[in-house]
Amino acid sequence: MIRDRPKIPPDYGVTKADAFIEWTHVEGRFVSERVYWIAVTDEAGRPHVRPIDGLYLDDALFVGGSPQTRWVSLIRPGTRVTVHLDGPEVTIWEGTVEVLQDVADGLAIRLAEASNAKYPEYRMTPSAYRHGVVTIRPTKVIAWTDITRDPTRFRFVG
How many folded domains does the chain comprise? Predict the structure, then answer.
């Protein structure tokens, strides 16, 4: 992972920036936030943005939704998406979709445990995570708590 400054016009005050956000801060937000906003495009290139549930585990986002929803019908392995968190701090995750079929027992159990800790109302079981799990690995994450102080870009290579 490479950490540097995102390209932001100087008119936004970024020339005064003297700090960086730590990756652990970004991870903490993705672990604790209950609502993620995902942006995908349809076949005609029109944006489609929806609030979704998600889990951060093993350096990836695991998101889910009914195959009958529009946003799920638009994603395929290799689809590029953007995920943004709610709140005053900016955290924007750009990544590529993977759809995991045949999920190992250990990972399915950990996903169910994480889901039940974060969303107890869903009462998820490991069997819900055995096939068709949507995962988003990061290619780039941009975050700041104050755009003039700590705008930070994380780029993932390899």
Answer: 1
